[in-house]
Structures are given as C-alpha cells and as structure tokens.
Design a protein that fits this description.
By secondary structure, the protein is α+β, with helices and mostly antiparallel strands. The chain has three domains: 7-204, Immunoglobulin-like (Sandwich); 208-296, Zincin-like (2-Layer Sandwich), CATH 3.30.2010; 303-429, Neutral Protease, domain 2 (Orthogonal Bundle). It has eight helices and 22 strands. The chain has a seven-stranded mixed beta sheet with strand order 4-7-2-1-11-14-13, with no helix packed on it. Helix 1 packs across helix 2 (283-294), helix 3 (311-327) packs across helix 5 and helix 4 (334-346) packs across helix 5. The longest helix is centred in the C-terminal third of the chain and has 18 residues, at 365-382. The mean pLDDT is 96. Pfam families: Peptidase_M1, Peptidase_M1_N.
Length: 439
C-alpha cells in the first residue's frame, strides 16, 4: 500500500469566514484591468497586486472563486508551482520569503463570474441583472471578480479599469480618472486612493444616467427613475452627518440605482447601491439611504478588524438613521426610536452576544438595533458634547484603519474620562437585554 501524503491546510484569516484570507502577507495596492461582455457573462482581466510579506512564508494563498487563472508572474520571489484549490490560488515558492519582503504578483484570469453561495451568509459577489451587473461583496464576494487577500483587515488602494459595450455605464469606487470610447466599447477607470477592504470594492454596470445633487453627491440610475423625496435628500444628509460625524472621508459619494428591485441596499466604499424600489419618500426607504451614507464613516473609513465586531458598523449606521429622523422631522426623535426598538428587542429571543454574535447571526437585525442602543446608552451617560466628540474623533483619528471593540472602548474611555468598557459591558457581552438607558 502506498503512503498517503498530507495536503497542507489552507489558511483562514477570520473564523467567521472560513476559507478566506491569508494572514502571512498584505496587499498594498490592486491594479485591475478588466473587460466584460454581457452576452454570455464573460469577464477577462489582469490583476497586479503589490504586496508585502508579514510573516516568513514559503507559500502565498489568494482567493479566487469561479474564475480561472491562465498565467501568473511573481516579481521579488520565485514560484516553484501553483495550483487552483478550494476557490483559492496556491503559490508554492521555491524557498521561504522573509517578513518585510515586497512582491508584485500579476494574474491573468477570466471566466463566467457568479455569486458565492454560503449557507451562513447567503449569496455574495458578481451577479447578472436583467440588463447589467451588480457586485455585492459583503462579506465573501470579492473573490468572484478579482484575485485578492479576502480579509477585512487587509486594506489597500485600488485602480480599477473596466471595459463594457457601448451604452453601458460602469461605476466603481473612488474618483473617475478616465473614460474612453472605442469602436464598440467604452472603458472606465476609477481610482480609490484611500485604504479599502476587499469586500468594499465593487463595480456596477447598467444603462444609467447621472444626476448631480451638488458638488459631492450624485445618483446614477435608469433615466426615468424618480428621485424626488428620496435620493435628493442626500446633500442634506451629508451636510448633517459632517456636523455630527466629522468631515466626509472621500472626495464624493454616489448612489447607484439598479433597474431591478433589490431586497436590501449594498454598502461599498464611496458609493452604495439600491434597487429601483427605494425611489420612494416613505421613511422605511429613506432611513436606509441615510444608513448607507453613514457607513462611509463607520464601516468604510473605520473598518472592523474581525467580523465579530460588526456592531461597530451596523450599530453606528442604525443610530445615524435615528439621528437623521430627528434632524429631518421624520417619524420619531432619536430617543423615541431608541425606546421603540428597546421595547421590540425585549420581545425577541435573548440569545445573541452583541460583540460576538457568531457567523450565523452577524447580520441579524438585533445586532443593528442593540448596537445602536449601546451607543444611546453611552450618549445618555456622558452627554451630547462628549458623545458626539467621541464619534467625530473616532472617525477622524482612525480613518483608514481596522479596529476592534476593545479599541473603541479604550478610545471612548480616554476621550470622556468614563469607564466606557464597564458602562457598555452588559450591552456588548451579556445575553440578556439591559434596561433602557436612564439619564
């Protein structure tokens, strides 16, 4: 009988997302040059990754799902062999590479992209619409359209060029740096010069028209979309959030509206994506326009290091909804929303730990509402001046970084002179819902 050879286990960077991310290296910059043909759903691309080794390693593992790499080249080290395995590209080097070594990896790839389906997190990634494409990458969909180190704490800058047939608009993260027309296609180049996690990178493709709402906000939507009472509120939202959260972290903000209806909006850095069904002035839709805009501060500029700390994104964005309701004369004041949702949470199962909800519950609505209530408890305890000072300074001083719950608790404690960790411990770590915050 022959001797079996053990296959080395591939790395996982975060237990909430098994089979994604390699902690042995970090990507500093992605340069993506892509071409898409809707007929047949064909994507081809060349990805150039500038990376640095963080731990001595004889191997590099990238995430790439549903697409095939045809060629690759590594500058700065030698590849002994490479293979595709379990939605990953595994590069075996001829020798161990030392920590601190800069490398440049070029991957030529292509295929018919499709979403990754996960029983805990659902579908995510590149998805065909009736006439166009949507990329919803949170939390595990980035590898469906480019090879990457898919972990939230590995933030990089990006240059994304995508060519599509004439008549389609392409929207991506950051600033539009070039738009060229060719015989039967158009290419669009976007530059995101602020650090961005892989799951926040996106491209949206459709037959869209652009509406500028001011110097920094715009909506890209089907030409007949009615934006009155919904997306035309974005300039006022941006102005208000800058007062309470601090300066907007990017050069501009874009809302993309697909011709298809979408169940939930999609968060990406410097832009958000909605379905046509969100072009309504009722609060149930407007609140989510505010929610996605608030993520530009909390979730995009300041990003979790571990998926267990998702309340640092969703609790903050949910609280922003309540703040906007009060500011805009919406259905309730912020305090009234807090009381309303506290009463609703009290009637729901008490089986969730906010600071570590588990992968199955990380996007449970109770994370959003209880996270917002934890912030309301902090506000009641320290007062408005100190509370909003914490929000502004947190977003401003930690922009571009990846953070944890403990980072926030330490920061808020130092900023307010209050034991914030002790104050918020019942909200974050107890299963039972604490009583409503009393001043």
């Amino acid at each position: 009988m022959g001797r079996l050879t053990a296959v080395p286990q591939l790395p996982t960077a975060d237990p909430y997302l098994p089979g994604h991310g390699d902690p042995s290296y970090a990507v500093r910059h992605y340069d993506l040059d892509l071409a898409y043909v809707p007929d047949g759903n064909r994507l081809t691309g060349t990805a150039v990754l500038d990376l640095v080794v963080l731990q001595d390693t004889p191997r590099l593992v990238l995430d790439l799902a549903g697409l095939r790499a045809g060629k690759l080249r590594l500058d700065g080290a030698r590849v002994k062999k490479w293979s595709a395995r379990e939605r990953r590209l595994v590069l075996q080097l001829d020798r161990s590479v030392a920590a601190g070594t800069p490398l440049r990896l070029t991957v030529v790839y292509g295929g018919s992209p499709k979403p990754v389906i996960d029983r805990r997190h659902g579908d995510a990634g590149w998805e065909e619409l009736e006439d166009g494409v949507i990329v919803a990458a949170q939390p595990h969909g980035a590898p469906t359209w480019f090879p990457c180190n898919d972990r939230p704490d590995d933030k990089a800058t990006y240059r994304i060029t995508l060519a599509a047939p004439t008549g389609y608009a392409v929207v991506s993260n950051g600033t539009l740096a070039a738009h060229q027309r060719h015989a039967s296609a158009e290419s669009w180049t976007y530059v995101m010069d602020r650090p961005m996690s892989t799951y926040l990178a996106t491209v949206q493709i459709g037959r869209y028209a652009t509406t500028d709402h001011g110097p920094r906000t715009r909506t890209i939507a089907p030409p007949d979309a009615d934006l009155a009472g919904s997306f035309d509120q974005q300039p006022a939202m941006l102005e208000f959030f800058e007062r309470v959260f601090g300066p907007y972290p990017y050069d501009g903000y874009t809302a993309v509206i697909t011709d298809d209806d979408l169940e939930i909006p999609l968060e990406s850095q410097s832009l958000s994506t909605f379905g046509r069904n969100y072009c309504k002035p009722d609060w149930s839709h407007v609140r989510l326009i505010a929610h996605e805009l608030a993520h530009q501060w909390y979730g995009n500029a300041v990003t979790l290091r571990r998926w267990r700390d998702i309340w640092l994104h969703e609790g903050f964005a949910c609280y922003a909804e309540w703040l906007w309701s009060e500011e805009s004369g919406g259905p309730r004041t912020c305090d009234a929303w807090a009381r309303h949702h506290h009463e609703r949470l009290a009637d729901l199962p008490q089986d969730l730990v906010l600071a570590d909800p588990g992968p199955e519950l990380m996007f449970d609505d109770r994370v959003y509402k209880r996270g917002a209530l934890a912030l309301h408890a902090l506000r009641v305890a320290v007062g408005d001046e100190a509370f909003f000072g914490v929000l502004r300074d947190w977003a401003g001083s930690r922009a571009g970084e990846s953070v944890t719950t403990d980072d926030f608790l330490d920061f808020a404690s130092a900023r307010t002179g209050t034991d914030v960790a002790g104050l918020l411990r019942p909200w974050l770590y107890d299963v039972a819902l604490p009583g409503f915050p009393q001043g």
